[in-house]
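Let us begin with a simple case.
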Amino acid sequence: MGNQRILLYFTLFFIIYMLWAQWQMDYGPQPVPVVETEQEQHDASSPSVEAIPEAASSASAKNEKVNTAVVEEAVSTTERIKVVTDVLEIEIDTKGGDIRRAVLRDYVATTERPDEPLVLMTDAPVNYQVAQSGLVSVNKGTAPSHNAIYRAEKKVYRLAEGEDTIEVPLYWQDSNGVSVKKVLTFKRNNYVIDVDYFITAGDKDWNGSDYMQITRAQPVDANGNKFIRTYTGGVIYNDEIKYEKYDFDDIAEENLNRQLSGGWLAMIQHHFLAAWIPEEDKNNLYFSRYNQNKDHYTLGTRTSAITVKAGQTGEIRSRLVVGPKLQYELEKIAPGLDLTVDYGILTIFAKPLFWLLNAYHGLFGNWGWAIIFLTITVKAVFYKLSEMSYRSMARMRKVAPRIQKMKEQFGDDRQAMSKAMMDMYKREKINPMGGCFPILVQMPVFISLYWVLLESVEMRHAPFILWITNLTDKDPYFVLPILMGISMFIQQKLNPAPVDPIQQKVFQIMPFAFTFMFAFFPSGLVLYWVVNNILSITQQYIITKRIENS
């Protein structure tokens, strides 16, 4: 009965994990919405001077440090610039040229409100998230920080028919003759915003660098599925460290201060991200800060310094990504950015599974049918392994009555009972652990598929057929969970009954427990389990009848 015990242990572990996740959602630390005054809302993205770290190493041989002081501008009036492309609706503040609001036009917040597009970034108190950037220099007052007030040419920009790009120029100048032009460039069908600084030095050389950061509050999602937990927080990446997470607790406990070559930083959440990508050849100082008063978390980077000769113009470039985690698009933008689609340690299995799922979607044009045919494909790949497991179960089922007689014969003499069972297994050429290895081999694949279905924004709010109008939401009529529970019950009847009465009771409860639990899972995941169970029942029934009739 080794395979039964392994299945039982795995099931119990899964149930305990889901109960723990539910407890965390209900009783764990919860983000508290901060009620801010109008002035506080306006300045929420302006952390203190300490929020900008010391400069990263200078590109020059002197390796001099750039003064980190941020000078507040005397002008207090700011304006909002609205930019509308085919996929984005952005609000830029003339204070710092910050992205204060970002709406994804092709994605809705909920299926209940299909006319309401998803707001990914906002400076409202709840779900606060803004993207900031600025310059700092050796000489105070000669570089516009994210507190500086820029001059704008227009208040509204729209991507017109026949146009592929929009450029939004912002202008700043100091009393010493230093002028800065900050240009934000938007492209058609693109979630990448190019941010370029053109710095013209005055009578003296200009030495400085740029920094970029994302400041956000912990999300408050009243519509979230409490049974599904995905990572929300910060990440940094470069070729050396690869992919490292810095969640809200990490940022609150200790300031990050890490110098890396190239790379990028991001704040990610389920299906979406905001990421800053500096120039590849820069040495960058990655930092984090926590504003306890506002409960805001900042993750940013500071690039190495450049020198602009007197009277000349230098350029500093960076990119901001604001949008969905479309896997094949992200890997084209920057190395490793596709890792924000977080499959965890099972990425090696998950990526090929998503490739196959995406291929089936291209063939059928429906993610529900893609899930069904992916499940069939996975089942076919593991057909022989499953056959080994089901043959072992069938043989165990065939000798189950003899095992029951042995139990009655030997009573409490467990040693004699074990010896008699082993002798019988030897005569019948039964390996009691024969079904374990196939199950263990398939577990990583099944768990990987679970994360593929959970993490893929491509399937977000995707309809299937009939009453299943959203594969990423629960079945509104609980038809699929009930079918899954019935299929689990049928599978149990095909398996050899456990000798232990306690195990028998636990196995009897499992279909009901899983039906209740899966009732709140995304219907796409439940669809996978239903199809997998139906295929397993068919295969196991044929093998069991063949063994019993032999």
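The second case is a distinct protein. As before, the sequence precedes its structure tokens.
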Amino acid sequence: MASLQRIRNHGTLLIIIVGVAMLAFILGDALSQSSALRQLFGAEDPTTVGVVEGNKLSYAEYDASIKELESLYPSSAQSEDFQTQVRYAVWNLFLQENIIRSQAEKIGMDLTSEEMTELCLGEKPHQMIASNPAFLDENGEVNRTGIAQFINMLNEADEETQQSESFQLNRNFWLDTEHRLRVTYMREKYEAILQHLLKVNTLDAEFAFNNRQHGVSAEYVMQPYYTIADSLVKVSESDIKKLYNEKKELFKQTPTRAIEYIVFNITPSAEDFEAEKAKMEGWQEEFRTAEDVTIVVNPNSDIVYDGRDYTKETIPAQFAEFAFAKGAKEGDCTDLLFDGQTYSMARIMKVGYSVPDSVELKVIVEGGEDTEIGWLDEARLKAFAAQQQLGKDFINQALNTKRGGRFTATHGLGELSFEVMDVSKASPRAKVAILSRAVDASDRTRAGIYNNASAFIAEHNNAEAFEQAAQEAGYTVTPQYNLTALSEKVGNIKGTREIVRWAFKAKEGAVCNEPYRCDNDQYIVIAALKEVNESEYRPLEDLRGQLSLEATNKAKAQYVAKQLKGVSSLEEVSTILGQPIQHTERVTLNDSRFGNAGMEPAVIGATLALDENQLSEVIGGKAGVFVVKAGAAINTNEDFQPEYEKLQLANRTIGWQYQQTLQLLEDESEIKDNRANFQ
């Protein structure tokens, strides 16, 4: 009753609390459904991959751009690393486009349709067009007519044609090319403006010239830091903190995670080897006798039979002597072989014939001048075919066409005709069917490994217990520091992006809820989250070793300075420190290295500030402690040539200044990067 009375007494307050909670619930659901409400209440659209200078990249646009770019490459080339590069390329293009666009709008810079036409079809096409084999004719010149016809085909295609796969591929290819060309040329226009503004004047050139002309000789004594015992100096916590605060801006970072992980290799068991052997033995008779060997080979073998012509060098090594032995004949078979991982056997399908090792080709141009390519062996034929984007039958056609014969291969937007001018001496070949199977872990074996990893997680569900138990069990625990939300993988293990996602959602000290199957199920990985770092700057603890060494070296320089107090000659310095006097012929402000001591900019600057025969104070360098005595000035007598010096200085600095400007623009731009939520 007392409880009910208290509720009645606070009824109004409870109504307000419940009402606010319900309103929050309703608004939360509404915000997830309505872009207008999200905008009204300042909530972020969950489908936005990124925002640059107020321009949004939606997931639909991001995904479509990725697929368009991927469609331009064969699926066989699309590895995990390739897909990472594609995603980066799409994001980087979006970044550059909008950063340059925002600057272009401020200065009234634009790219007209006339300029785009000139870039593609003008007398001097842009390098992106001129260097792409798909846009070149048989003479290596830009095929303006072909490009114009190609664009017209895309613009005038009927509805049925637009639905075809080839049309979509061509359309994606052109849209990607046009988009990249537009962004690249806008960037080049902006760069040209910057280069016009960032000019080198005569005073700049004269200053650089004088720095090179004026120098001094010097003698010096150096004591390396490592020769001074750490016990001779004292570095306090406040010294390290002071150094950290002085350099803090150098330690900016994005949020990171530190994890530890264990990798369970998926390897076949003894039972798996026995099972695979039994399968191969079961196919052995059919393999030896089948009229159509592809029926048994192609569905079951790791090496399909496609009628290829093997040489003694290109056939798998274990079958070289068998296939090319004296007396080898069609129908011969090997016994079942085993190399520790793979069971295999081979059957000769054709032997005793030869194919040329190389051919001399020329391109045939109807109504034009033929182009001789020269001699190409099989490796060079492959390289030539890839470079010119020729059809897959090109190599076989080239090697199997007789002297004087002609053949045609697809090429970019059209076709190329070739003539075989000559063929080399033929070498022995053989057609061999190979039934080969590498032993893989069975589903039962994989399940056993997975269950062991799951049991380990269940029994050790915090990072401390995880690490200790792993060591006791003899597992290798691998640390991974500085994971970012955009890290593609853990260590060098493919398919571990999901672990990165988990690390950025879990709490510090957590262990993953279940094992992760990685690299096409070749590994099982479990992980513990050791550290969550959301700080804008790297924490002092992560840098303690580096800062402690730097602070210790500073203290050692002060220690040496006390030892040398009152010393007036370099000979005395040498005696006290037990280090030899060294000599450097000439030091200028343009130098980066000081004598034999390496990169020592502070020592160079201090040396050039000395009068002749003046002894320096103790200088704390990068590698050790220095005392320098300046010698005579050594100047050259070159004539100052203003235009030459300006050109040299511009070549050294303009590109660097432009890159710095672009980086500054990126740093100053309003960028919201949500890519980690979508990959």
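The longest helix spans residues 165-197. The CA atoms of residues 28 and 166 lie 45 Å apart.
Keep these points in mind for the review questions at the end of the chapter.
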